[in-house]
Amino acid sequence: MTKRVEADYDVVVCGGGAAGVAAAIGAAKTGAKVCLVEKYGFLGGAATTSQVYAYCGLYQQGSRPIKAVEGIGMEVIDELRRHGLDGEPFRSETTGNWIVLLDGEILKFALDNLVCRYGVDVKLHTRIASVARTANRLEAVTLAGMGGRTRVVAEAFVDASGDANLAMLAGVPFRTGDCEGKLQALTMPIRVGGISPELNIDRAALKTAIERYNEKGAHPIQRTDGGIIIRLPLSHDMLWMTVDVDLPDLTSESFTSAEMEARVRAHDYVAMLRREISGFERAYLVATGPQIGVRETRHPAARYEMAGEDIVSGRLRDDGIARAAWPIELHGEAGKPSYTSIGGIGYCHIPYDAIRAKDLDNLWYGGRVIGADPNAYGSIRVMGTAFATGQAAGVAAADHVDADHRDTVTSVQARLHGQNALI
Q1: Residues 6+ apart with CB under 8 A from 302
Q2: Residue 139: per-residue pLDDT
Q3: What is the pLDDT of residue 173?
């Protein structure tokens, strides 16, 4: 691999969620020197910051689980198995989709192990504060960490921040929310303890309790069907997704209001469980995540924007670099999700240009920030798919550094196949 002698790294990855971890490892597997920057004190993204303890998008819909993601996504699952989780696909009774259940502490540890195993230089408690750009290339980033600020020069960059933080600093134009600026609703998954592992949660009783609560309760529950309920592995606590709030804009004031309102709702809803449902008399709120679950913020300009029709038709294409298999899941109104299945053979291809920044030659996207219109975004944003787009972005960034390859689609595809990725 050929690089400029003054570069500190071949590839810098912004964001340590599913996409960022996959990008960092994918690049490192090619021999690249990689820096992974994460603002929290742990990796994992929404799974560990927001208690989204289920990987979605690793499998296609249907009566049996068919893999849509291999490569680094499945390396993560294998590492979870080594530390006590079964890692098997589980079919949600609410949606019928195949998911893989998680434990937050095991996941943090597993991801630490993987990035260290591949020699990634991880910088936690660190943000990208500014960028240096010359014409159509990024030259360097300034990292703000506990020890102050440092300037890092790299050959290629990946934005896997979920919020387009790197692309925004680089001056890439972006869209906020959908085409009218509306953001999808937030959800705060809550972990409820104090219930017997043997208790069969009666959804009919839960729906009745919600109906009674909504008559006089201070914070009506929008998910009148009871929401998504998962009994977690190991602890058998109940993960409950029913705390939904709208987000009017991306200001700190709006996020503050949403976080506080969600916590009020969480405590009130658990109190309702104790009062209303047999078997929940000793229920208590074990935890909310460090951050409320965010579905959507900024969409930076890419060289290709996937359309909802690409998903609905199950479009396959020669320049594909990953598969999208999760249905279009939209949360335009808090507590009222809608789902539209993928057509064709059960997945569609994500094209190479959807992970390439517009008008920048050495910036790639992974995860939520890839090019997608509001409908396509409802499919591609989930963590299982983020592993696939992140791995592709990391491999493409490393391929760009290598003077013998220079990031042609066929070269990136070949390297992804060599890393056992599905295309």
Answers
A1: 353, 354, 355, 356, 357, 358, 365, 370, 371
A2: 97
A3: 97
Task: Enumerate residue ranges in the chain where pLDDT < 50.
Answer: 2-3
Q: How far is Cα 325 from Cα 311, in angstroms, rounded to an integer?
A: 8
Nearest alpha carbon to residue 37 among 18, 21, 13, 10: 13
Tokens of 201: 């949660």
Homologous superfamily of 9-181+296-418:
FAD/NAD(P)-binding domain (3.50.50.60)
- Domain residue spans of the chain: 9-181+296-418, 186-287
Residue 93: per-residue pLDDT: 73
Per DSSP, the residues of 104-150 read HHHHHHHHHHHHHHTT-EEE-S-EEEEEEEETTEEEEEEEEETTEEE
Q: What is the DSSP string of 277-314?
A: STT-TT-EEEE--SS-B----EEE-BSS-B-HHHHHTT
| Burial zone of 130 (CB within 10 Å; 0-12 exposed, 13-18 middle, 19+ buried) | middle
